[in-house]
Amino acid sequence: MFMWVVLLSAKDAAPDVIKCVQAAAERKTGRQLRALRIxxxxxxxxxxxxxxxxxxxxxxxxxxPYTLQQNGVVERRNQTVVAAVRSMxxxxxLPGWFWGRRSPRRSTSSTELRRRAPAAKPPTS
Length: 125
Known about the structure:
CATH superfamily of the largest domain: Ribonuclease H-like superfamily/Ribonuclease H
Shape: globular
CATH class of the largest domain: Alpha Beta
Radius of gyration: 17 Å
Strand content: 5-15%
Structural class: mainly alpha
Strand order of the largest sheet: 1-2
CATH architecture of the largest domain: 2-Layer Sandwich
Number of strands: 2
Distance between the termini: 25 Å
CATH topology of the largest domain: Nucleotidyltransferase, domain 5
C-alpha cells in the first residue's frame, strides 16, 4: 500500500494535487486509478473535478458527511501520521505550528518511518 503526504496551502489546491499524485502513482505502479473515495467537500464536487474524473473513467465514491467509518483506513493512517509528527515535534521542543508551515519534512519523515516500521501480522490458524 502506498501513501503520499502533500501539505496544501489551501483546500482549493486539492484537485490539482490529486491529479499530480494520481499521475505519479500510475507511473510508479503501472496501474490505472479506478476509484477515488472522497468526502463532499466543495473542492471535490466542483464541476471541473467531476468532469476530470468522468473523462478518465475514475469512479468517485462520495462518503456520507461526518461518517468517518466509511473512510476508516485512511482516517486511521492520517491519525497515525499526525501522532508521529506531534511526537517528533515534542521530542525536539518545537511549537505545534511548525508542523505545517515551516517543516513539511516532518510529516514526510513520519510517513517514511511508518512505511518502514514492522507491522504485526495476523496469526495464522
